[in-house]
Design a protein that fits this description.
Elements lengths: L2 H13 L7 H23 L11 H22 L2 E4 L3 E5 L4 E5 L3 E5 L6 E6 L4 E8 L3 H18 L12
Antiparallel strand pairs: 1-2, 2-3, 4-5, 5-6
Helix pairs in contact: 2-3
InterPro entries: CFP-6_PH
Pfam families: bPH_6
Protein name: PH domain-containing protein
C-alpha cells in the first residue's frame, strides 16, 4: 500500500466519522449517573410506616422508577449522533432516528438562534441534527463545516457517480 492510498483512506475515515456532541454528552451522562444515585438514596431514606412516615414500599419503588426514567432520557440525549456513509446520513436525535440520502439535503444551517445544525430537505422540510451543537464552540463549527462539505460533495449539486465523461 502506498502512502497516498493510506492518506486517502485516513482522509475518508475522517470525513465519514460519526458526528457526536462533546459537552452535551459529558454533561448528560454525568447528570444521568447523579440522578440514579440521588433518587436511589432518597428512595431508601424515605421514612416508611415503621419510622413514623407515610411512604410505603410501592411509593419508594415509584420514586426510584422516576429516577430511572429521568436517567434514561439523559442517556438518550447523550447517545444522539449522526452517522454519515457514502449513501446518506443516519440522524439519531432525542426521540427519532431518520435516514436521509445525501441528495435530499439541499442546505445546511448553523446560525441564528438554533442550538444545533438544521438541514433543509428537498421536500421543504427541515431536520435538526442535534449531534452538532453550538455548545461545542469551535468543534461544533468544524463539524458543521464537515457536514456541509459532505453535502456539497455527495448532495443534489454533486455530479452523478454513474456519469462518465464522454
Amino acid at each position: 500500500m502506498s502512502d497516498s492510498d493510506a492518506h486517502g483512506r485516513a482522509d475518508e475515515a475522517k470525513a465519514f466519522a460519526v458526528f457526536q456532541p462533546r459537552r452535551g454528552r459529558v454533561v448528560a451522562l454525568g447528570f444521568a449517573v447523579a440522578t440514579l444515585l440521588l433518587f436511589a438514596v432518597i428512595a431508601v431514606l424515605l421514612p416508611g410506616p415503621a419510622q413514623g412516615g407515610t411512604w410505603r414500599t410501592g411509593d419508594k419503588i415509584f420514586f426510584a422508577g422516576v429516577g430511572v426514567a429521568i436517567a434514561f432520557l439523559l442517556w438518550r440525549f447523550a447517545s444522539i449522533r449522526a452517522i454519515p456513509t457514502r449513501d446518506g446520513i443516519s440522524v439519531r436525535n432525542l426521540i427519532t432516528t431518520r435516514v436521509l440520502p445525501w441528495r435530499s439535503i439541499v442546505d445546511v444551517r448553523f446560525g441564528g438562534g438554533d442550538p444545533w445544525v438544521t438541514v433543509e430537505l428537498d421536500d421543504t422540510d427541515t431536520l435538526a441534527i442535534m449531534a452538532i451543537q453550538k455548545a461545542d464552540a469551535e468543534y461544533g463549527r468544524s463539524e458543521a463545516s464537515r457536514l456541509a462539505a459532505l453535502v456539497q460533495a455527495l448532495g443534489p449539486s454533486a455530479k452523478s457517480p454513474d456519469v462518465t465523461a464522454g
